[in-house]
Design brief:
alpha+beta; nine-stranded mixed β-sheet; six-stranded antiparallel β-sheet
């Protein structure tokens, strides 16, 4: 079952007009909420990020937060899986093709849920390969826009190379990866780019920061030069689906010793403990 413009219905019956601006222009935003044991994780933060994205692109929020929460919970209840990823999408709506915003148009609201599959143990234990590329996307990467062709093309570069991610540099400075945030460790210090318009403010990024702080890891948020990334002891990528993964090879060369490092292992174990203690027991109203 999916949700489309106020109704729950089978996905085979969901239809959107071809003049929807999401289809014509990629004119919309989205959000993905992880669900553990049927409890949405940090729904408040995810809905707040959705609200920020809507405001940034000047699409009127179609629902109050309580209504969004009710839609998510009902959608989760209609699925057979305990762990899910709830996808929300809002476009500017249906109108004749014209770049300027149409007047008097209702946003199109779509939501679906899929199984949430975490990385297999083998990837966690062995780490993954990544490639690098110039970050040639637009300058508002903090907006969770459905216009993702830049990310798609960059991610395909790593797929073509048999790698798990594409790590991005803009003018020689680390931004993020094609579908992840990035952390770097050197000499016991964990580094990550500060939040800005050039990266998506990840909810998992925030969780990893909290866990690292709880574990007493020194943290620093600043611009990280490409040379620092290539000389790092450890590189991690984080997202709702990846959780935390160690990058052990970048552009065919080993990162550090070419295997997941000790700080990664502590962070990953801390994340798993956090899942057991918080994510699977967190109150739905949080």
């Amino acid at each position: 079952m999916v949700f489309l413009n106020g109704k729950f219905l089978p996905i085979e019956e969901a239809r959107v007009p071809v003049l929807d601006r999401g289809f014509i222009f990629g004119d919309g935003v989205y959000e993905l909420i992880p669900v553990y044991s049927r409890a949405p994780f940090r729904m408040h933060e995810h809905l707040a990020r959705l609200e920020r994205s809507l405001a940034a692109v000047r699409i009127a929020n179609p629902y109050a937060r309580d209504k969004w929460r009710a839609i998510v919970l009902e959608l989760v209840a209609k699925q057979p899986w305990e762990d899910q990823g709830v996808y929300l999408q809002v476009t500017r709506g249906v109108a004749k093709r014209d770049h300027a915003f149409p007047a008097g148009v209702e946003p199109t609201v779509f939501a679906m849920s899929n199984p949430l599959v975490n990385p297999p143990k083998e990837l966690v234990e062995k780490g993954v390969a990544a490639v690098s590329a110039p970050d040639n996307r637009w300058l508002r990467c903090d907006i969770k826009s459905i216009s993702l062709i830049g990310n798609v093309l960059l991610r395909q570069q790593s797929a073509d190379a048999g790698a798990a991610e594409t790590i991005l540099f803009r003018d020689g400075i680390l931004t993020e990866a094609s579908a992840s945030n990035v952390f770097v460790a050197k000499n016991g210090l964990v580094l990550s780019p500060p939040k800005s318009n050039l990266i998506l403010p990840g909810i998992t990024y925030d969780v990893v920061v909290e866990i690292a702080q709880q574990l007493g890891m020194p943290l620093e948020f600043r611009d990280i030069r490409e040379a620092e990334v290539r000389a790092a002891d450890e590189v991690w990528v984080t997202s709702s689906s990846k959780e935390i993964l160690a990058v052990v090879e970048l552009d065919g060369k080993p990162v550090g010793e070419g295997r997941p490092g000790p700080l990664f292992r502590r962070a990953w174990e801390g994340y798993q403990e956090f899942k057991r203690r918080v994510m699977r027991k967190e109150a739905v109203s949080a």
